[in-house]
Design brief:
Elements lengths: L1 E2 L18 H17 L45 E7 L1 E5 L5 E9 L5 H15 L10 E2 L4 E4 L7 E10 L8 E15 L2 H7 L8 H18 L1 E3 L2 E4 L6 E4 L2 E14 L2 E14 L4 H9 L10 H11 L3 E4 L8 E11 L4 E3 L6 E3 H9 L9 E6 L4 E5 L3 E3 L11 H11 L3 H15 L5 H6 L2 E2 L4 E7 L5 E2 L8 E2 L18 E2 L2 E5 L6 H17 L3 E2 L8 E2 L5 H16 L6 E6 L6 H13 L2 E6 H5 L3 H14 L6 E2 H4 L11 E9 L10 E8 L8 E8 L11 E5 L3 E5 L1 H13 L5 E7 L6 H19 L7 E7 L6 E3 L18 E3 L9 E6 L11 E8 L5 H11 L14 H15 L14 E2 L5 E2 L41 E4 L4 H5 L9 E4 L4 E4 L4 H12 L6 H8 L14
Parallel strand pairs: 1-34, 25-27, 26-28, 26-29, 29-30, 32-37, 37-38
Antiparallel strand pairs: 2-22, 2-39, 3-13, 3-21, 4-6, 4-8, 5-6, 7-8, 9-10, 10-12, 11-12, 12-13, 14-15, 14-20, 15-18, 16-17, 18-19, 22-40, 23-24, 23-31, 32-33, 33-34, 35-36, 38-42, 40-41, 41-42, 43-44, 45-46, 46-47
Helix pairs in contact: 11-15, 12-13, 13-20
Length: 1028
């Protein structure tokens, strides 16, 4: 996996997506129309025919056209026929909608209210008072903001209402009344005609407005009964809440959404569980968070920070004022204990302590004055409330991160076998009783109460190829899983120099030695060349000394090896290791350039053969080997992959957890680096603005002071890497894009497809390979269930449908090319199929071709002997983005003075650190300090350059030499500056040289800045140097 170089991340100005961009996108739209017209025909001849797209080489704008309607998604080419036919049930319930249109009104509330809950309370009161008179007996539905819908016209076009609402938060004896002016005005008739045309199979755009209105109608009553969280609805009455620990409990709920499918309109219902805060006295909640006695001891600084983070934003009610239960939202926690707090009580700034004030005004004696106070209100007027005088208001979802114990408890509560999931879904539909829903009746909507019955097919598993020296050279997986017994990896890697570091205090040195020897033996059995003895004895260290310990092992091994390099580090971690794993990976991969394999303590003590085999597979891939390949790939029998050089991309963007409003998002793109096997992948990651879904660095151009206009980006680099690895340029592109919601389909497709085209054209103006763009979704809520749970021939051991089950009819889109594929065997709970939506297809795949390819690729995941639930390139991209988040040192985003790069929207994004070159497997990267503008061959002397610049020159070994794991040629490295010239021939010398150089020039440039440049790669030199 490669890291983007922070230095090569220029400012790219781009107008907002919805601004007028006619001139900039005129050529793009012409090309789009050509391709849409061309797609109406099917493939003919030996290979795909694609017109060359005229893309400007140095167009810095990769913007999206203002109109999304200029692009149509790929139509379904037909239905798949491959596989064994069967019936499954889906959690979709058919909805019947009215033929008449719906009236749309605007709502304006004065004074303006931002709370949807308060807005709804105001409108509920308005309907209660005026339905029989001014509203003409109409029962409207309201979205909580500015939109009101009715099944027919109201008796007026515009009308004002005065609504007085009581604020019961002050208690029964001290209520406040607030007056609101509500203006309702007619806007338009919302037509249902386009929705009816879509359901009839006509090629029209999805009518999102009509779907939104129906969704609001069906949620109106449910939102009054349950706690609404997005599209989810929760209640403690659905199932008794279960304690999760730390003051949290799980609430059961359900997801509800309207979707157009081939059967008509569907109501999708799925079960869910999430964490809510227990309605406890705040002091008891604090005791549970800290898991310690807080009633007699003061809080430490670290405890106070932890409590402050957990309580910020939580709503509480006071308990010291009898019937008055006023509610507040917590804004902070005092740094002083309650007994030390004083505040001004009048305009003369007379001070009084909190303890005295509560005693005098409320007659309340504060018992736990050693604890801090809650801060409520705004910064200008802060109020103090003792912990013991407050209780948490019920029904608040916990939005902070859960610890490992809480996650385990929540998973245990929410994990249900398929037949249990089906019963809960049907019970939820029964409890909601849509037949008696007054809002559904008003709008003429009815819901079926039976699960949809759907035709499905079970695709055959692919044959896998292993090494010829094993007893089983070829193998056909059964029910989505197999093992390594009697098999050897097809390409075994070599590990000559390794070490082990033990961070677990419960693992003795003898136990660690025994585990390492078992692991080494399993690697050898699996087909790897693995030296039995570590370079140095196993080193034990404390987790809080991770950086010091890693550097000690690294340099101790380097000293012992005398110029050779440590290749692998095995790390034994405690089961609950907190940030240790992330710290270790960051230090190894961005500072030391060291490949590592982590193992948890529980597996060290109880290491089964299956566990050791899985770890050996991971080590083999990390060290450059291949575990297995598809037999059809070796025999050139994969349709639309084996015929011409094909590169398969996977892309994903991961966002910070809920509640984090500053950390950048991480984008990752991986691409296959072998053909026709398509099992090896290279990857690139980059940081981009907070919660930005469009991948900003797919393609970019910028002006360099020395080199002029420079082109680069993730797609371009990976295309060059593919050519370097295979000797051929890709003639077909398949792009699996993960993590895109339906509302972002147009935006992502237009932006990223355009970036792919421009990246290709930047390499060669006439180079425009056909592209297939597929969105992969796992965060949907469709569940496929066995038609008969007692039929063991149609289910796996967990009771789930068989791996390879594919559905492309009935519950799929009425016109577009999508399908559901359950490619994995269930372990526990109910399996979730992956949803694949082919948005763009210039390769003209048939349904069978793309479904079979996707299913077969799921058997090539390198880290285990199971078929996986998501196609591997998308899976690898997700893992790469997740790993890259560890590279960001804790707290860097909170430092406003941190060096950062301006993103395309002007926001400040801190770049990720570059990986050390050894992590780039197989090929060295080209390292650059200041300037690099020359070419050199393997046997060439160090070139003459301007002595003002210091440059590290890295010679490249042949691909064959690296893949065989042997040094067959001499690697020349030269560091040139105005004082001296050095030539090194030992692989271990270059890192020491870089570090010495940094130390020598510390006065000229800060060490951190120089290190970031040393490990950075140049865009322009990729034509000469392959990267993986």
């Amino acid at each position: 996996m490669l890291m983007k170089d922070p230095k090569e991340n220029p400012v790219i100005s781009r107008e907002p997506l919805l601004n007028s961009m006619k001139e900039k996108n005129e050529d793009f739209m012409k090309d789009t129309k050509k391709i849409i017209a061309r797609r109406r025909g099917r493939r003919g001849g030996k290979g795909p025919k694609v017109e060359k797209l005229q893309v400007e080489k140095l167009n810095t704008d990769v913007g999206t056209p203002a109109s999304f309607k200029s692009l149509m998604f790929h139509r379904r080419p037909g239905y798949g026929q491959l596989g064994t036919k069967c019936l499954v049930k889906a959690n979709h319930f058919i909805a019947n909608i009215p033929d008449s249109d719906i009236c749309h009104y605007s709502v304006k509330i004065d004074p303006e209210v931002t709370s949807h809950k308060l807005n709804k309370a105001i409108m509920t009161q308005l309907v209660k008072l005026h339905r029989e008179s001014d509203l003409g007996m109409r029962l409207p539905v309201y979205d909580g903001a500015r939109n009101l819908y009715t099944a027919g016209f109201l008796p007026f076009t515009t009308k004002n209402f005065i609504i007085i609402l009581s604020d019961d938060e002050e208690g029964a004896c001290n209520r406040r009344e607030r007056e609101f002016k509500v203006t309702i005005s007619f806007i338009t008739l919302a037509s249902m005609q386009q929705l009816r045309e879509l359901l009839a199979g006509k090629p029209v755009d999805t009518p999102h407005k009509a779907l939104t209105i129906i969704d609001i109608v069906l949620r109106q009553l449910a939102a009054q009964r349950y706690v609404s969280v997005g599209r989810f609805l929760y209640s403690p009455d659905i199932k008794k809440p279960q304690q999760l620990g730390g003051g949290l409990e799980s609430w059961r709920g359900f997801y509800q959404s309207i979707r157009p499918i081939q059967m008509g309109l569907s109501l999708n219902i799925d079960m869910s569980s999430t964490a809510f805060i227990e309605p406890l006295p705040v002091i008891d909640f604090v005791a549970q968070i800290l898991d310690k006695d807080v009633y007699s001891r003061p809080l430490s600084d670290s405890d106070r920070i932890k409590v402050k983070k957990a309580l910020r934003g939580v709503k509480v009610e006071v308990t010291h004022r009898g019937n008055v239960r006023r509610k507040y939202r917590i804004s902070g926690l005092t740094s002083q204990p309650t007994r030390e707090l004083i505040f001004p009580v009048d305009e003369q700034k007379n001070m009084k302590s909190v303890v005295e004030y509560f005693q005098e005004v409320y007659g309340y004696t504060i018992q736990y004055s050693h604890l801090p106070c809650l801060q409520v209100g705004n910064q200008k007027k802060v109020n103090y409330l003792p912990l013991e005088a407050c209780k948490i208001v019920g029904g608040q979802r916990y939005t902070k991160g859960l610890n490992e114990k809480q996650i385990t408890s929540l998973l245990k509560v929410s994990c249900q076998r398929p037949h249990e999931q089906e019963m809960d879904i049907l019970q939820t539909v029964h409890q909601n009783d849509y037949e008696k829903d007054p809002y559904a009746k008003e709008f003429g909507i009815s819901i079926d109460n039976k699960l949809a019955s759907v035709e499905a097919r079970v695709l055959p598993a692919p044959w896998l190829k292993y090494h010829d020296t094993g007893k089983e050279k070829e193998y056909l997986p059964q029910v989505g899983q197999w093992n390594m017994m009697n098999k050897k990896v097809i390409n075994g890697s070599t590990v000559r120099h390794w070490a082990c570091i033990n961070f677990s205090k419960t693992v003795q040195e003898s136990t660690a030695c025994s585990f390492c020897q078992q692991l080494v033996q399993m690697c050898q059995i699996s087909g790897m060349e693995f030296n039995r003895d570590p370079v140095i004895p196993i080193y034990s260290a404390r987790p809080d000394q991770v950086k010091k310990a890693l550097k000690y092992v690294y340099y101790a091994a380097a000293s012992k090896l005398e110029g050779k390099e440590l290749e692998l580090l095995i790390a034994i971690l405690p089961d609950n290791n907190g940030s240790l794993y992330g710290d270790l990976k960051r230090i190894c991969e961005t500072e030391l350039g060291l490949i590592s394999q982590c193992c948890l303590t529980k597996y060290v003590f109880n290491s089964s053969r299956q566990y050791l085999a899985n770890v050996s597979l991971k080590i083999n891939v990390k060290m450059g080997g291949r575990n297995t390949v598809l037999l059809d790939a070796l025999s050139w029998r994969i349709p639309l992959v084996s015929d011409i050089p094909t590169i398969i991309f996977g892309a994903d963007v991961t966002h910070p957890e809920t509640g984090d409003d500053s950390c950048p998002s991480i984008a990752a793109v991986v691409a296959s680096q072998d053909w026709p096997e398509v099992t090896k992948y290279a990857g690139l990651v980059c940081a981009q603005p907070h919660r930005e879904e469009l991948i900003q660095d797919l393609f970019k151009t910028w002006k360099d002071p020395q080199r002029g206009m420079v082109t680069g980006g993730m797609i371009r680099e990976l295309l060059l890497s593919f050519k370097k690895a295979t000797g051929q340029k890709p003639l077909r592109i398949i792009f699996y894009r993960d993590g895109v919601s339906e509302g972002q389909f147009y935006q992502v497709l237009l932006y990223e497809l355009d970036a792919i085209r421009k990246a290709c054209a930047s390499l060669e103006p006439s180079y425009q390979p056909p592209v297939t763009f597929i969105v992969v979704q796992k965060r949907h809520h469709t569940r496929l269930l066995a038609n008969n749970h007692n039929d063991r021939s149609s289910t796996d051991k967990s009771g789930n449908i068989l791996p390879g089950t594919v559905v492309d009819s009935k519950i799929c889109h009425p016109t577009e090319f999508d399908f559901y594929l359950c490619s994995h065997a269930g372990i526990q709970g109910t399996s979730r199929p992956a949803h694949y939506h082919v948005l763009w297809d210039e390769n003209n795949f048939t349904a069978d071709e793309i479904q079979s390819l996707t299913n077969n690729l799921c058997y090539t995941y390198a880290r285990c002997t199971r078929s996986v639930s998501v196609v591997p390139p998308a899976y690898y991209a997700h893992l790469a983005a997740y790993r890259a988040r560890f590279y960001m040192e804790p707290g860097v985003h909170e430092n406003a003075k941190t060096r950062c790069t301006r993103a395309t929207n002007g926001s400040c994004v801190r770049p990720l650190p570059a990986l050390k070159e050894k992590i780039d497997f197989f090929w060295f990267r080209l390292l650059e300090l200041e300037n690099f503008n020359f070419k050199a061959s393997i046997n060439e002397e160090a070139p003459k350059i301007n002595p003002a610049y210091a440059t590290i020159y890295v010679g490249i070994l042949s691909h064959e030499a690296w893949t065989n794991g042997r040094l067959k040629s001499v690697v020349h490295r030269a560091v040139v500056n105005k004082e001296k010239q050095r030539l090194f021939r030992k692989p271990g010398d270059v890192l020491a040289t870089i570090e010495n150089y940094i130390e020598e020039h510390a006065t000229k440039r800060s060490k951190g800045s120089l290190e970031s440049q040393v490990t950075g790669g140049g865009e322009e030199q990729l034509e000469n140097v392959g990267q993986t």
